[in-house]
């Protein structure tokens, strides 16, 4: 069940961090690592990636077959949900760890530092596929101004690298259907479908 926050409550989470959702030693290896830009305030408040009620990440994953059970992220992901992600080999992280109201509050330096940290994380976790959600942030983080969405020509460490659409409700030209199609494609590449 979704909850709500006042603007003041949300602002209290500015600069907070959200832990990565990654498997532990008892879990199967991460096969597909989704990478958001940075946590929004709602995400920080619920400690759940892509949690804002207008975000279409989880509905698109479900529609694309990447996950098999619905997730009410706006209320905060349950431990059962987290366990299902880990069991399927799906992880989630961000380019920048600190929460902001808008991704536009991030500097290019923060995004570039986050890109370097992502490379180190991928070297350690060794997923089959990395899917960065957002072409603009990807271009800035990796200093690739002409990059286009889809599978990238160069891997990131040992992983195949993809750039997929950002599921934020602010990305108005994407629909749950178009997001589901893109996410299913990376799911297939990771061997999940």
From TrEMBL:
Coiled coil: none annotated. SUPFAM superfamilies: Uracil-DNA glycosylase-like. One of its GO terms (biological process) is base-excision repair, AP site formation. InterPro entries: MUG/TDG (IPR015637), Uracil-DNA_glycosylase-like (IPR005122), Uracil-DNA_glycosylase-like_sf (IPR036895). One of its GO terms (molecular function) is pyrimidine-specific mismatch base pair DNA N-glycosylase activity. PANTHER family: G/T AND G/U MISMATCH-SPECIFIC DNA GLYCOSYLASE, G_T MISMATCH-SPECIFIC THYMINE DNA GLYCOSYLASE. This is TDG/mug DNA glycosylase family protein. It comes from Nocardioides marinus. The lineage of its organism: Bacteria, Bacillati, Actinomycetota, Actinomycetes, Propionibacteriales.
């Amino acid at each position: 069940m979704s909850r709500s926050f006042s603007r003041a409550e949300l602002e209290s989470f500015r600069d907070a961090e959200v832990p990565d959702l990654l498997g532990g030693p008892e879990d199967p290896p991460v096969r597909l690592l989704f990478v958001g830009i940075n946590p929004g305030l709602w995400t920080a408040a619920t400690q759940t990636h892509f949690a804002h009620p207008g975000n279409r990440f989880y509905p698109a994953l479900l529609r694309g077959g990447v996950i098999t059970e619905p997730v009410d992220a706006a209320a905060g992901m349950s431990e059962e949900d987290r366990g299902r992600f880990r069991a399927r080999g799906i992880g989630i992280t961000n380019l920048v760890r600190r929460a902001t109201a808008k991704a536009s509050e991030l500097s290019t330096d923060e995004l570039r530092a986050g890109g370097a940290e992502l490379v180190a994380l991928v070297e350690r976790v060794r997923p089959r596929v990395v899917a960065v959600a957002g072409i603009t942030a990807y271009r800035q983080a990796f200093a690739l101004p002409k990059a286009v969405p889809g599978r990238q020509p160069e891997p990131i460490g040992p992983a195949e690298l993809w750039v997929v659409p950002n599921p934020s409700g602010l990305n108005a030209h994407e629909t749950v259907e178009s997001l589901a199609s893109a996410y299913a494609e990376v799911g297939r590449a990771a061997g999940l479908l």
